[in-house]
Specification:
The chain has about 180 residues and is of the alpha+beta class. Helix content is about 35%, strand content about 30%. GO terms for molecular function: acyltransferase activity, transferring groups other than amino-acyl groups. It comes from Aeromonas lusitana.
Length: about 180
């Protein structure tokens, strides 16, 4: 488990986040987070038709397969600060704020942060966690296809654009940014 990180924007009562391995219990909440993130953040860069098709991906069985089969991490509010009845009962609340997945061959296929928690460093924390894990796995190259709204995050972490690609989802076309990052030995 990765160490917790305080949210600098909350100076009086800092919120602490923790990154934990993705497990089966997270999956329903991650599907909802995926859809919510796309529907709320997508309209800034995509047409209503594109947002709708992309959000429908939350119901595609391939998404659940990726969550189960790839290495994955979830960032969540630390249980001691979640303030839920579950925490009082001593059980861990599942309140994911974001997630990332990494395949065995070094492909980052999913990196999403709740629309309510974007631009707070959570995406960076998730990406750094995946990059550290990739180095531990002996990977030397990471690849991904980034949306327009996540492109800047990857570029800030040393990814380089290798091209653009057009993909189609249910008759709706999307442009994605193909990226790679060479990891230090």
């Amino acid at each position: 488990m990765s160490p917790s990180m305080p949210d600098a924007s909350q100076s009086q009562n800092p919120v602490t986040y923790q990154v934990v391995p993705l497990d089966e219990g997270h999956i329903p909440a991650l599907l909802a987070l995926f859809e919510q993130s796309v529907r709320q953040a997508g309209p800034e860069h995509y047409s209503p038709e594109q947002v709708e098709r992309w959000a429908q991906g939350a119901r595609h069985p391939g998404l659940v397969t990726q969550l189960r089969e790839h290495h994955g991490w979830v960032i969540e509010q630390a249980p001691e600060q979640a303030g839920t009845q579950m925490a009082e009962q001593g059980t861990k609340p599942i309140t994911p704020l974001g997630f990332v997945t990494l395949s065995q061959d070094g492909h980052l296929s999913l990196l999403y942060v709740s629309a309510d928690h974007q631009r707070q460093g959570l995406g960076s924390r998730l990406l750094e966690t995946a990059m550290q894990a990739a180095r531990r796995l002996g990977l030397r190259l990471l690849t991904t296809e980034a949306s327009t709204f996540s492109l800047g995050l990857f570029l800030r972490h040393g990814f380089e654009q290798t091209g653009l690609e057009t993909v189609e989802r249910g008759g709706v076309s999307f442009i994605r940014h193909r990226l790679h990052c060479r990891l230090p030995s």
